[in-house]
Write a structure and sequence with these properties.
Blueprint (H helix, E strand, L loop, with lengths): L2 H8 L5 H4 L1 H12 L5 H29 L12 H4 L4 H27 L4 H20 L13 H22 L7 H21 L1 H6 L5 H5 L1 H26 L12 H13 L7 H21 L5
Helix pairs in contact: 3-8, 3-9, 3-14, 4-6, 4-7, 4-8, 6-7, 7-8, 8-9, 9-12, 9-14, 12-13, 13-14
Amino acid sequence: MTKFKTLIEAARLRTLPLSVSGILVGSAIAFTEGFFNPYIFILALVTTVGFQVLSNFANDYGDGVKGTDNAERVGPVRALQSGVISAKEMLYAIVVTTLLTLLIAIGLIYVSFGSEQLLLSLLFFVLGVSAVAAAIKYTVGNSAYGYHGYGDLFVFIFFGLVSVVGSYFLYTKKLEWDLLLPAVSIGLLSVGVLNLNNMRDAKSDALSNKNTMVVKLGVARAKSYHTLLIWIALVSATLFLCLNFKHWSNALFLISYVPIILHLNRVRSNTEESLLDPELKKLSLSTFLFALLFLLSYNNFL
């Protein structure tokens, strides 16, 4: 396999739909209030994809140099683990991705706030730098928070709260309390994807001293935790619908609950963690479907 193809695989393209789900939801709410800027929409999507690719590269590097990605691991072979990409080459990819993503983020901030709202521009730049730091520190370094069970919290904050509320604010320059409801939904569904990943890798993570939430709870309790995450996410989105219902089309996103609930049933009945790998893709795509339908639900596309 060539280095380029291996690097593309290290970008983990299947994670990208999940990463933009929060942007779609935040944008949907802004659009329905009459705030639409195609440049903000496109730049926000590209920036978020950049942060996700950076996170995937950093995860590959961090787990690779620590030896966490080894023969005991159940999931796909990673770039460093394969030997096709060296640690130095992956570091170079991380640096380039960081610089490109920050440049795009600066463009997004300028389009949204111009040169007049300096404090808001600085605030969002700090958020961008924080997102970079969070992406890298998940598995890189001696104090990597992913090795101490804090990955769930950071995913919830950045994939949910920051993504949904932040993207809405870029359009509107205001905040509404009920935004927290769909933000919680996207955040918890994203944590669910991470939890599946950690359930799949529970045995190898425990052997490598990667103390994820699953390793701390045990797989049985992690399944109950997973069920709780998903149901709170669905209830939160439904509550937002009840508070903002104006037309039958607002309920269109409820269709996405069907594959999500079917997914929950499969996870509950699972008896072998290695068979959970397909569920990552299914929950990720179901979350993306939720976001797309949410975009349709709260705009005059129908």
